[in-house]
Write a structure and sequence with these properties.
The chain is about 55% helix and about 5% strand. InterPro entries: AKG_HExxH (IPR026337).
């Protein structure tokens, strides 16, 4: 993996992850097809199966629950659900689609896990902040279609990769979470409904959603590449040290900083392509301001990561060099 998107490599990584998912389920006595193994809900069951098997002699009752869970998911994966179209795991095919996901148990459990990991905060009324998966409305879907058209026009390579790494886009409402990616349901990303409309800063909705998809897609790609190909950080380095990062107030592990650097570099590249397209008209000033903000954050992230480059593998160093070039400095 490098900073520049690569759909073919993404498909190869997905094939490796599908094999790992099938192997994890097989050790628990569960069999799935390659297309089923790519689905985020099946990925979640594979993670659960790994924990059951690691515990020693698997409890038949727990294995039975996993089997029933898989049966329910399989009905969605192979049935008429609008978001669960089975995907081939054959080599790269450009004509894939990213589906808006209806609320589903695996997505709701992922949001619950994400909320638990956040510091407790109250809203303006003194109530705990909440977030939930919500259904896509028709105008939400139209916003997604406009965003896909924008990405296809200004950065087709990025869209081709997103169409490989993302299977479901879940829509969030509530004030607790703006968006996130969860390796426990790999292939699904979560985006706040507010990102589908225009921002107070004048950014058009399709541009804001394009940034959100590029952002979460970069996290998804990093997760896949670090498992399916080669790690970015040396063993025990990713979680051993907390550092300041551009996108979070709280200190994050080096793995978090590394992914932020990739996210920011790719987001900069998106905005540069949007500006080069000349299609934003009155919104051009807002697009330029956002690009400049991302550039400052990218530069800060690259400089911090350079201070810790001894924790990077050769693979990680090559990605840092790419990001540094995007940010306008050399390593």
């Amino acid at each position: 993996m490098r900073v520049a998107p690569d759909a073919r490599q993404s498909a190869e990584e997905r094939t490796v992850l599908v094999g790992m998912t099938r192997s994890a389920l097989a050790r628990a006595g569960l069999a799935v097809t390659p297309a089923e193994a790519a689905h985020p809900a099946v990925v979640e069951i594979a993670h659960l199966a790994q924990r059951v098997v690691r515990a020693g002699t698997p409890d038949p009752e727990r294995l039975g629950r996993l089997g029933r869970m898989l049966d329910r998911v399989r009905a969605d994966v192979t049935g008429p659900s609008p978001y669960a179209a089975a995907r081939s795991v054959e080599p790269y095919a450009a004509a894939r689609s990213v589906e808006p996901a209806a609320p589903a148990p695996h997505l709701e459990r992922s949001v619950a896990r994400a909320r638990k990991s956040l510091p407790a905060r109250d809203d303006d009324a003194g109530k705990p902040r909440e977030s939930a998966v919500v259904a896509w409305r028709e105008h939400d879907r139209e916003s997604l279609r406009e965003t896909v058209a924008l990405l296809t026009a200004v950065w087709p390579e990025a869209w081709a990769e997103l169409a490989e790494v993302l299977l479901q886009v879940a829509l969030l409402d509530g004030s607790a979470i703006d968006g996130f990616t969860d390796f426990g349901v790999h292939g699904a990303v979560f985006v706040h409904r507010g990102r589908l409309g225009p921002g107070r800063d004048g950014l058009p909705g399709p541009v804001r959603l394009a940034e959100a998809l590029v952002h979460e897609g970069a996290h998804t790609r990093c997760n896949a590449a670090s498992v399916a190909t080669a790690p970015f950080l040396l063993p025990a380095q990713g979680e051993a040290q907390l550092v300041a990062t551009p996108l979070r107030i709280d200190p994050r592990p080096l793995t978090g900083l590394f992914q932020q650097v990739v996210v920011l570099a790719r987001s900069m590249m998106l905005y540069e392509r949007v500006l080069d397209s000349g299609k934003q008209g009155p919104a051009s000033a807002a697009v330029r301001l956002r690009r400049d903000e991302l550039a400052r954050d990218a530069l800060a992230g690259v400089r911090t990561l350079m201070d810790h480059c001894d924790a990077l593998t050769g693979h990680g160093m090559s990605v840092l060099e790419d990001a540094a070039r995007v940010a306008g400095i050399s390593v």
